[in-house]
Amino acid sequence: MADALERTALRKIYLRLLPVTLLIYFLCYIDRINVGFAALTMNKELGLDPSIFGIAAGAFFWGYCLFEVPSNIVLEKVGARLWLARIMVTWGLLSGATAFCVGPWSFMSVRFLLGVAEAGLYPGVLLYLTYWFPDQHRARIFAGFTLALPGAVMLGAPLSTGLMELDGLWGIAGWKWMFLAEAAPTVVIGCLLPFILTDRPAEARWLSDAERGWLSRTLEHERRRIEAERTVGLLESFWNPRVLLLSLNFFGIVTASLGLLIFLPQIVKQIGLTNMQVGWASMVPYLCGCAGMAAWGWLSDRLDERRWTLFSACIIAAIGLMVAGLGVGTYWSLVGISIAAIGLYGSKGPFWSMPAMFLTGSSAAASFAWINSLGNLGGFFGPWIVGWVRTSTNSFAGGLYALAGFALLAAVVSAFWLNIPKPAALPVTPAAPAE
Prior knowledge:
By secondary structure, this protein is mostly helical. It contains 18 helices and no strands. It has helices at 2-46, 50-78, 80-97, 104-118, 121-130, 138-146, 148-164, 174-192, 209-229, 241-269, 275-281, 283-303, 307-326, 331-346, 348-352, 361-375, 378-393, 397-417. Helix 10 runs antiparallel to helix 14 (331-346). The longest helix is centred in the N-terminal third of the chain and has 45 residues, at 2-46. The relative contact order is 0.16.
């Protein structure tokens, strides 16, 4: 009876929440990574060389870092419906505003403000999903939600380069059309979000009384198990050793991932492809990333293990980036990038299942955001390193080797310091079945 109740409740929750959260993050990443495709023509118009572009594009992550924690704490207090809607509308408006940039400083300013607006989205959705899914399902749901990331690059690549073909229509540059057209759906969906999401299971009228009762008891039992081991307070969570080590691991992953992502179109362009062909070719690594993410999420939950699945994903990413560096200017670079994408995106499910293994309540809300904000500083350093090496050596190879080093750093942290045991089981307090 309990197994049947679990299956029916989780099926409803998956069908209700996964499509919405996928769409949110899909639009988020379209609006985040389209700058890499815009760079194919925008950089010349705005006077950006590879080094300046890397710094300016990475300014997004300074705004993102500064406002992650307060944003997630507000979400935990006021609810996901209203706060995620606010995030979507403001980031959509600022993403569209990129079309009005006229030089390096205006571009850098808009990128910084875009980071401020989007701060809290990713950790906020992850936190929101912990309100609905027990621990043994989290790697899969986190991986499923984050499938939007490689999916956005995979589908956004030809979409973005296709919109850039509108160059000259009504006297507007193609890269400007791209920013305006891709920002509009974000604002629309953001306005509709309060009517789509449900904040907590107790408010879910689309679940039966028995299903709500089972879910509430299960999540409460998990919370008590964690707090019986040791309660981590809100302020303590900022310097908790496990939180800081998770942040260091994530910093390595993000530095490698975003350094690759921002310059992917320019790396692929060196094979000798047209802008449109670059868009189609850029789909390949992220199709592989989707497969890696689904496989590692399933494997992590199936084995009920996080640390070593995370380690293996980081090692695969490092190997792929080395291959990409050795093959710059040839199709081998695309092969290496595809291998790296499997590892980089495969790491997401097991990694984000780890904080909820020892954190609850406000400390969990703050720590999800703190880990994400510290880790996402890699989104500044990755593009900056690749851009600087490209300007200094006239090659992307050295930058890709450096990114491989950061992926290896993440693997080392996972292997030696991320042994986070599951809390000891407590007896379940019997509860009367819901009428």
